[in-house]
Amino acid sequence: MGQMYFLVENEETMTSDSIKNNRNNNKNLTKWFSEIPFLRESQIMKIHYITGVGALFVVAIHIMMRLIMPFNMSLEFENVILNYKNIFYALLLESILILIAIHGFNGLRVILLEIRQTQIWERAVNILVIVAMIGIIAYGTRTIIIANGFSLG
Amino acid sequence: MKIFKKDKKEEEITNERSLKLERSNKSTNNNNSINQNSKKLRIFRINAVQNPNDVPHFDEFQVPVKRWTTVLDALLDAKSYQDSSIGIRYSCRMASCGSCGMKINGVPRLACYTKISDLDTNTITCEPLPNFPYIRDLVTDFSQFFAHHRSVMPFIQNKKADIPDVNELSEYEQSPQELDKFLQFSYCIKCGLCYSACPTVATDLKFPGPQALSQAYRYLADSRDSDKSNRLKVIDTSHGIWRCHFAGSCSNVCPKGVDPALGIQLLRSHLLGISNNEKKIAKLKDRSTDSSYREDLEEQKEEK
Question: Are A7 and B134 within 8 A, CB to CB?
């Protein structure tokens, strides 16, 4: 029979006033991460598409670099560390990390926002996604720096 | 006693009806060009407003059909002769008003625009439009749909058009090329079929839906409109145009040949800056200085 909707007065049945109020509330609550602050959705999606295409290129280079020697050899500890020691390769890994973290977490945000449409949920998703993205980038950058030979301690 | 009378009346009606059917069957045998037979009509029944706990179910009716019988004709036949309590919304019967939208054999269609002979089945299942709250039987609540439509400001906004003096009435100049940019989107009859077919609306009720978004593009692409920024602000949100998955089902079900999915993509490309849709607002012509226009006005006054 498919999904059923009943005419019941709840948050799912919206009038034009309630839609406008929601949008006004969204504007007022921008600082509370109901929407991503300082960025319009079109700007976020522009970043999403650019990072997606960018990630495609850098990951392709990363995979091709695995083929300069036999695949099992390329994954040996010393070879991996040698890769990190190469500053260009370290920068490539860093760019993969940043591009994929931004693209992936924004994709996750988009999926999660579609599941529920309450203010609390949207705020929680936006905050968690930004925190997770920053956390992953910070942790990955730390790994690259350590492996590159610079001690943080 | 009254009940007995009513039953008797019903019996009379059914007898008349069976006689009519017999006659029509005879005429069918005589004339092969008229193909009349009967089909089973399964109608979704619910009374959600009066009884929120009402359990939805299907009622079945046997209806006579001819080659040109539409689903709306069949429904009205069932309502007239078998069960007058069937809830249907309809008006023009010619696919102009968009009132009789419903799910027919699993696909959102206009009942008045769907011929039973085209369905090629012996059983026709009619259900209310998905993604709309039920009111009763096949009647659904469009308030949310129209609220989204209103939110995109579906009207021309141009501050230059506010001319209080009647003598300075002017007209917009619009070339056929400018008209072509939005013409197909202006054929929308707001029947809600695209909205009901949209998988994103099914999960995200804040999503404006293909109808509202294509109308936003229709007014954005109109050379007479000058207030695009406010309209874009409304749709450029986290539940706005970017949540479209481009399933394309909206364009598949549109009875008027509008392509809402195309409108959404054009609007997206505009927001991304790929297409700036260079609009040229026609200069307002001051008709108070136009001598021929003055002569016309004077003639009109004299006639009065």
Answer: yes
Task: Give the mean model confidence (pLDDT) for residues B264-283.
Answer: 69
CB within 8 Å: A6 and B202: no
| Separation CA B126–CA B119 (nearest Å) | 12
Tell me the range of B25-39, B164-178, B182-196 where mean pLDDT is highest: B182-196
**Alpha helical stretches, state H, B31-125:** 71-81, 116-119
Distance, in Å, from the CA atom of A133 to the CA atom of A111, rounded to the nearest integer, reads 16
Whether A19 and B147 lie within 8 Å, measured CB to CB: yes
Q: Is B270 on the interface with A (CB under 8 A)?
A: no
Residue type, A15: T
A2 vs B contacts (CB less than 8 Å)? 127, 130
Look at the block and give the residue holding tokens 């529920």: A116
Q: The complex's ipTM? A: 0.73
Measure CA A36 to chain center. Answer: 13
Q: Could you tell me if A119 lies within 8 Å of chain B, comparing CB atoms?
A: no
The domain over range A40-152 is classified in CATH as 1.20.1300: yes
| Nearest by Cα to A23 from B160, B236, B164 | B236
Indicate the Cα dihedral angle A51, A54, A56, A61, nearest 10°.
Answer: -140
Are B151 and A46 inside 8 Å of each other by CB? no
Closest by Cα among B199, B197, B234, B198 to B215 = B234
Q: What is the pTM of this model?
A: 0.76
Distance CA B279, CA B262 (A): 19
d(CA B182, CA B227): 16
Contact B206/A22, CB-based, under 8 Å? yes
Give which of B267, B231, B225 is closest to B246, Cα–Cα.
B267
Neighbours of B75 (CB within 10 A): 26
CATH architecture assigned to B8-140: Roll (3.10)
Residue A128 C-alpha, separation from nearest chain B C-alpha, in angstroms: 16
**Average of per-residue pLDDT across B150-177:** 75
Question: Residue ranges per domain, chain B?
Answer: 8-140, 143-272
Radius of gyration, CA atoms only, chain B: 25
Pick the CATH number of B143-272 from 3.40.50.300, 1.10.1060.10, 1.10.8.50, 3.30.70.2190: 1.10.1060.10
E strand or H helix that includes residue B280: none
- Calpha distance A16→A20 (Å, rounded): 6
Q: Does B135 contact A at CB distance below 8 Å? A: yes
